[in-house]
Amino acid sequence: MRAGGRPGWAEVRGRLAAADPGLLRFTAGLRTVASIALTLAVLSALRFDVSHLVAGAIAAMVATFAIREKGRPQQAVTLALGLPVALASMSLGALLNARVVIGDLFFVALIFCAVYSRRFGDRGTALGLIGFQIYFASLFVHATGPALPGLYVTITVAFGCAALARFVLVRQTAAGILDRLRRAFRTRFAQLVAAQAELLDAGPDGLDRAVEEVRVRTARLHETALLIQGRLADGTSDEAVARLVQRRIADAEIAAERLGLLLLTARSAERADTLTLHLPGAPLPSAAVEPVRDEAMERLRLDLEALRLLVLRPAGPERGTALARLRNRLLGYREGEDLPPAPAAVQDVFRGIGEAARSVLGLRIALDGPQDESDDTPATSRSREELDAEDAAIEGAEEATGLRRPTTRAAVQVAVGSSLAIVGGEFLSAQRWYWAVLTCWIVFLNTASTGEILVKGYRRLLGTVLGVVVGIVLAGLVGHRTWTAFGLVLLFIFAMFYSAPLSYTLMSFFVTAMLGLLYTLLNTYSLDVLVLRVAETALGAVCGVIAAAVVLPVHTDRRTDELLAGTLDRLADVTRAAADQLSGAPPVDLVEKARALDQALADLAAAVQPLTHPITPLRARRDTARYVVALLETCAYHARSLAATAELLPTHPSIAADPRLRGAAQRIVHNIEAIAAQVAGRPPVLPGIETGPSIAAMLEPGTLGAPRYGRVTDRVLRHLQRLDEAVVGLARPLGVPVRPPATA
User: Fold this and answer.
1) N or C terminus: which one in the chain shows less Cβ crowding within 10 Å?
2) What is the mean pLDDT of the chain?
3) DSSP string of 461-523?
4) pLDDT (average), residues 503-527
């Protein structure tokens, strides 16, 4: 019974790890709930009244979620600095509460400083959040001068409980987070392979759904890879190990995505377009047919399941022999060993499985340490030699640094918006005007354009309206049962933190439902209060949008153009560096360049959400934005693949540089730079982009006595060709003219 239960529990853990990589959301919610529960327990033991319990709960929540630094010593320092900031903010809130004009002016100044402090990094952001939220708490509980001593004790207890929850009860180390992210990567890799197997079996009616599932799981794998890359520096003590893991994660991601493309090609009589896996609704290969049931395809299904098991199960003494047999068989496909009689496209899938198995071997060595080599076949030994040579090449790579974005504009905008919200809020309610200010403040957090603020304000208003409905029901059911209400508050707080990265509307719903319970505890609940909450929320969102649109505006088009130009610049950088290295140039840190490209693309995808939102009335513009982002994702995939291949030089035993590749990539790099220049408004070196013969045709045989091209060069050419096609495809929606090919 016990043995039979273990796989079920392991499956549950795997699904949880895949749904919440690193358990980051779960841990954030659990830590916040533990902090608040501990605070409530201590304050109730000290016999504080309900208003102090509410203030303590808010302070504990703020002291927990405001700290964003990754290192535990840095977290402790920020938490210690936050306590005097909180005490000062509570004091000023209590003293200025009765002085309307002075209090409002100070609140606006505090908001400006809180937003401006974000330019000083995570610590500045945390202290600004603490200052603002505790001042807001003073307004919420109607703090007064005589009540300050008790509130000081309340805040001190809350910060102490937050520290206890963070550093003792719900400990979370950088190494532990990274380890959980690695397990999540393995689980999502296995889930992607399972989706690819379903793609192989899908009939014409289910092909769209199967491709969509592969697309979603590919995006989730990429998301986990980016999370791991962001945690490597803090989660590993050795920089060489961090670079090695980063490289192995990138290899596995590329191999998994390439396998999906090969499978889609095998399902049709024509080569699948890479764009199919990046653009929802993209047309599938027109010659898609019923799944084939011959011997080769049945073997392919078994090998995909073998690959999934190889990904999921860490090597262990009890099953090492079985895993070794699977591994050796799959790795043999890389060199064409034991390939079944089948069409070339199907044989390519077997080779793709071999490449994926090789990436899993590298990942296993990087994450689990040296493996037993006693059962190795010659093909497996050669794969290990390649990995060892790459490990030696990775040593000595240099780290890159980034630039921090200034926040003065946002501070001015939110100060103006908050001023409008204060004035308008006072007309709606002299007692609860601060809800409009809070909404205005929140819609500016993590936004950078008018469109982003508009979408965020709309989502907050929608979540608030839904939360009011639930709050009315819960307030009637709970009545004045204090601990029942606090129990539901803790449940909603956990749900709020767990859902925050997934849906801002859902998070706002839980916040509003929780506030209905807090009003009940403070004996201030009524239907009018909750309706007023909706009105204040709408007012705050409108004030935020007005401020963003009028005061130093950053229009969505301008914001997306800046990010698009930056993404194209990084794409050109990766392509040029990869082509140079493949042509024999000295090695550079291509993985770091590829990571910078991925981050730029992620920022762009977030910024275009106002343009691609379902409620946008500009349908053609929405489709264009989706198409451009999908093309850029396709370009990024091929650029990552080029970078991964280039990094195998010069130590890989079976790959040699081909000087002709630099010339073949020149047109692509020029076209990327020309598009970037037009988007950014810079004068291009030559107007428009250039088209011409295929990339493969540009490699004339006989150069330097080299053959036409070998297996690796052939793969590089395919990536260059697809990259060239995608870049040319970008020119049309972006309005970049196409000029005829240059003549000698």
Assistant:
1) C
2) 76
3) HHHHHHHHHHHHHHHHHHTT-HHHHHHHHHHHHHHHHHHTTT-HHHHHHHHHHHHHHHHHHTT
4) 76
CA distances from 181 to 18, 225, 231, 425, 673 (A): 9, 9, 9, 44, 36
- Residue 515 contacts by C-beta under 8 Å, 6 or more apart in sequence? 467, 471, 533
Asked if 583 and 666 touch (Cβ cutoff 8 Å), the reply is no
Q: Do the beta carbons of residue 249 and residue 228 sit within 8 Å?
A: yes
Mean pLDDT over residues 158-171, rounded?
A: 91
Contact at 8 Å (CB) between 142 and 97?
A: yes
Burial class (CB in 10 A: 0-12, 13-18, 19+), 422: buried
Peptide bond into 146 cis (omega under 30): no
Kindly report each contact of residues 341-348 with a partner whose C-beta sits within 8 Å and lies 24 or more positions away, as own/partner.
341/296, 342/294, 342/296, 342/297, 343/266, 345/262, 345/265, 345/266, 345/271, 346/266, 346/296, 346/297, 346/300, 348/262, 348/265, 348/266
Taking only Cα atoms into account, the Rg of the chain, rounded to an integer number of angstroms, comes to 29
What is the Cα 621 distance to its own chain's centre? Answer: 24
For 388, the enclosing helix (H) or strand (E) is: helix 378-394
φ and ψ at residue 24, rounded to 5 degrees: -65, -45
Q: Which two tokens stand for residue 308?
A: 């999934």
Predicted local distance difference test score (pLDDT) of residue 203: 72
Contact call for residues 41 and 144 (beta carbons, < 8 A)? no
| Burial category of 95 from C-beta neighbours within 10 Å (exposed 0-12, middle 13-18, buried 19 and up) | middle
From the centroid of its chain, how far is CA 692? 37
**How many other CB atoms sit within 10 Å of the CB of residue 80?**
11
Are 330 and 306 in contact by the 8 Å Cβ rule? The answer is yes
Burial class of residue 486 in the structure, from the number of CB atoms within 10 Å of its CB (0-12 exposed, 13-18 middle, 19+ buried): buried
Q: How long is the chain?
A: 744
Structure tokens at 662: 């630099």
pLDDT in tens, 50-108: 888 889 989 999 999 888 887 788 899 999 999 999 999 999 988 887 787 788 888 88
Q: Are 437 and 542 in contact (CB under 8 A)?
A: no
Given a contact cutoff of 8 angstroms between Cβ atoms, the answer to whether 609 and 452 are in contact is yes
Q: How many other CB atoms sit within 10 Å of the CB of residue 508?
A: 26
Specify the DSSP element, H or E, that contains 690: strand 689-690
Question: How many CB atoms lie under 10 A from the CB of residue 568?
Answer: 28
Nearest CA among 128, 148, 139 for reference residue 103: 139
Which contiguous run of DSSP H or E holds residue 739? Answer: strand 738-739
User: DSSP assignment, residue 549?
Assistant: H
Report how far residue 35's alpha carbon sits from residue 33's, in angstroms, rounded to the nearest whole number: 5
Rounded to whole angstroms, the Cα distance separating 457 from 735 reads 32
**Torsion sign, CA atoms 174, 175, 180, 184:** positive
CB neighbourhood size of 185 (10 A)? 27
Nearest by Cα to 564 from 705, 716, 409, 734: 734
Closest to 440 measured CA to CA, from 68, 97, 111 = 111
Model confidence over 170-187: pLDDT tens digits? Answer: 887 777 777 788 888 888
The string over 108-126, giving b where at least 16 C-beta atoms fall within 10 Å of a residue's C-beta and e elsewhere, is bebbbbbbbbbeeebbbbb
Tokens in use for 96?
């200025």
- Range with the poorest average pLDDT among 43-57, 198-212, 225-239, 662-676: 225-239
